[in-house]
Design goal:
Shape: globular
Mean pLDDT: 96
Order of helices and strands: EHEHEHHHEHEE
CATH architecture: 3-Layer(aba) Sandwich
Strand order of the largest sheet: 3-2-4-1-5-6
CATH superfamily: Phosphoglycerate mutase-like
Number of helices: 6
Number of domains: 1
CATH topology: Rossmann fold
CATH class: Alpha Beta
Number of strands: 6
Helix content: 25-40%
Length: 187
């Protein structure tokens, strides 16, 4: 399976604000980002995306009658609960708790990275079980893309944060019976 992972364009939010699943727009043209990325993609593909507007706006630019957009909530960013929309500087010492346990920590009313991982991998299991004949393009967020790439590349979850997916950038993985090849990252 040829798998293209695309992070949404730069979000329309001030730096230093926790946004997770906060449904915010984008600060750059989805059409321009899509035009820049389109030459990197195959002619035909199956298209999947997070339903959050910052991913959906870009995915809509790739959708065609032959590649209808499939939205799936399991591809949403991690949910930061009560932290969403707050400046990290106002969250206080809880940031230290998160840093001490980045996989298990859960912001009040949110989900942990382990919980996000479970839902994203459930989506991946369903995708792989369907044995898609066409290449697959996924438009989502940094967190879910780290899960997909890190898992497929066999990296331990503690190392996934090092996979820094750039906004409006594409990455290609080829998933074969013998293993996974990283063809390119953040183009």
């Amino acid at each position: 399976m040829e798998l293209h992972l695309i992070r949404h364009p730069r979000p329309a939010i001030e730096p230093g604000i926790c946004y997770g699943q906060l449904d915010i727009g984008i600060a750059e043209s989805a059409a321009e980002v899509a035009a820049r990325l389109r030459p990197l993609l195959p002619q035909r593909f199956d298209l999947h995306a997070s339903p959050l507007v910052r991913a959906r706006m870009l995915a809509d630019q790739f959708a065609t009658p032959l590649a209808p957009l499939r939205l799936d909530a399991r591809l949403k960013e991690i949910h930061f609960g009560a932290w969403e929309g707050q400046a990290f500087s106002t969250i206080g010492a809880a940031i230290d708790d998160w840093a001490a346990d980045p996989l298990g920590f859960r912001a009040p009313g949110g989900e942990s990275a382990r919980e996000m991982t479970a839902r994203v991998l459930h989506w991946l299991d369903e995708l792989q079980a369907s044995a898609p004949a066409a290449p697959v393009v996924v438009v989502a967020h940094g967190g879910p893309l780290r899960v997909l790439a890190g898992h497929l590349l066999g990296l331990p979850p503690e190392r996934w944060l090092g996979l820094d997916f750039g906004c409006g950038q594409a990455t290609r993985l080829d998933v074969e019976d013998w293993g996974v090849a990283l063809r390119w990252f953040n183009r």
